[in-house]
Amino acid sequence: MDAYDLFSSCRKGDICRVRYLVEQRDVDLNVKDKWDSTPLYYACLCGHEELVQYLLASGAKCEANTFDGERCMYGSLSDSVRRLLKDYKCVSVRRFVVLFFFPCRLLEQGQHSDVKFLVHGQTFLAHRCVLSARSEYFTEMFETKWNEKNLITLKHPLINPAAFGAILQYFYTGGCVLDDLSGVFFSVSPLTEVSNKPGICVKVLSLEPHSCQLQEEMAQLADCALPTELRVGFGELPFNRVDRFPTYPDICLRVNGYNFLCHKAFFCGRSDYFKALLQDHFSEGEQLQSQPNTPVITLHNVSHEIFIHVMYYIYTDDTELTSENVLDVLCVADMYLLPGLKRLCGKTLAKTTCEENVLYMWKTAKLFRLSRLEDHCAEFMAKIIERLVDQAEFAEIIKEDAASLEERHETDSVPLVDDIRYHIASNVQTYSAIEEANQKLDALEELLSSINIDC
């Protein structure tokens, strides 16, 4: 029902409700209704300019030469909305989308930065760990010419601030937009391959993010953070950079006696839990003997095996999840206030949903507020409702869901029942499908009547 609420809110222009559904309930922005329409289409059709801007910035799809893109353009109520679509280059040019919102924010805000670059009067905050992971040039410079320097001044006349800022954007996000290619002299292969072709004059260059490359290079920071005893297979190959790759850690997180050398910028930026934890412990505490300026924080209620999965997510926005570890990772993600990791766990759990565990999965989704998993379970229940109504546990779940509503009246709806009804009735187009849907609804109504719930 969250999807229906999103469509309704987009038609009304209720941006506060849309923000809640997208950011808190994790509703898919590109979901389509039975008329094959998207939330962005309704916002454009009704002329809600501010809402259109928010949807575009949040990742709503509206690409050139596609049904959705052209429909949004021609269906827009006003010229201002059309101009907004063009400004975002959603229809005429494929829009650059940052795959990793966190690294982009890390660059813009510069939290816990440990180096500053001064380029012709303009200052750029950066992090040695990110630049070293992304560029061997910076790795070498930080170890030699720029060693122990907190402020680095670049005076070369060919380096302009706009180009240097674009390079930093590429290092942090995997993509960038360059209006001026002069001053780009660092070893960035996608730039040199295009600009060195004879007979080509490039004025504007847009680089789409390469998620795999960015994830692999950010994963090197997690590889280096692993304690030596837990590194399996690292350092055996000549092209592996882990042993000779300085990452400049500034925090040691101790789990089950193992020391993980990490970075405050990633842990504090990703998690409010770690932000509060590290701020409270900076005044006094244990220092790492091998690195005297690195504070040590001991983490409890988590095993080092599960923490490794959490750590890789914090650095790469992804981690390896299996049916054996996903519930443990979910509990820790909830404790550490990592909603993105919780969503990854929800996707993994959705793949393992079956008739035997769907009720348990729905309870888990409800407990951890995983709205997509909750909706997935409701859709699955709708498919097997005729067998599900014979289970006593299903009747108890409906009773509990009804009792959980504050000040519920006798005839008020029950969220789970509403969701199941919605999925039974959705996309019913043929007579045989209508008859099958009516049989499922009758089975559900008979169960509700037997447990004295009128909704």
How does this model look, in words?
The protein has a 3-stranded mixed beta sheet with strand order 2-1-3. The chain has a 3-stranded mixed beta sheet with strand order 7-6-8. Strands 4-5 form a two-stranded antiparallel sheet. It is 52% helix and 7% strand. With 455 residues, it is mainly α. The protein has 4 domains: 2-87, Ankyrin repeat-containing domain (Serine Threonine Protein Phosphatase 5, Tetratricopeptide repeat), CATH 1.25.40.20; 101-209, Potassium Channel Kv1.1, Chain A, CATH 3.30.710; 214-343, 2-Layer Sandwich (Potassium Channel Kv1.1, Chain A); 354-450, no CATH class. It is built from 23 helices and 8 strands. A hairpin with a 2-residue loop joins strand 1 and strand 2.
CATH topology of the largest domain: Potassium Channel Kv1.1, Chain A
Give the count of structural domains: 4
Main pleated sheet: 3 strands, mixed
CA radius of gyration is 26 Å
Tally of extended strands?
A: 8
Indicate the CATH architecture of the largest domain: 2-Layer Sandwich
ANK repeats: 35-67
Protein name: BTB domain-containing protein
GO cellular component, one term: cytoplasm
Coiled coil: 427-454
Feature tags:
single chain; 455 residues; Serine Threonine Protein Phosphatase 5, Tetratricopeptide repeat; Potassium Channel Kv1.1, Chain A; 4 domains; three-stranded mixed beta sheet; 23 helices; 52% helix; repeat; Ankyrin_rpt; BTB domain-containing protein; ANK repeat; SKP1/BTB/POZ_sf
Give the secondary structure arrangement, pairings included.
Elements: H1 2-12, H2 15-23, H3 39-45, H4 49-57, H5 67-75, H6 79-87, H7 101-109, E1 115-119, E2 122-126, H8 128-134, H9 136-143, E3 151-154, H10 161-173, E4 176-178, H11 189-195, E5 205-207, H12 211-225, E6 251-255, E7 258-262, H13 264-270, H14 272-281, E8 296-299, H15 304-316, H16 326-335, H17 339-351, H18 358-368, H19 371-383, H20 385-388, H21 392-403, H22 415-425, H23 431-450
Parallel strand pairs: 1-3, 6-8
Antiparallel strand pairs: 1-2, 4-5, 6-7
Helix pairs in contact: 1-2, 1-3, 3-4, 3-5, 4-6, 7-10, 8-9, 8-12, 12-15, 13-14, 15-16, 16-17, 17-19, 18-19, 19-22, 22-23
ANK repeats: 35-67
Keywords: ANK repeat, Coiled coil, Repeat
InterPro entries: ABTB1, Ankyrin_rpt, Ankyrin_rpt-contain_sf, BTB/POZ_dom, SKP1/BTB/POZ_sf
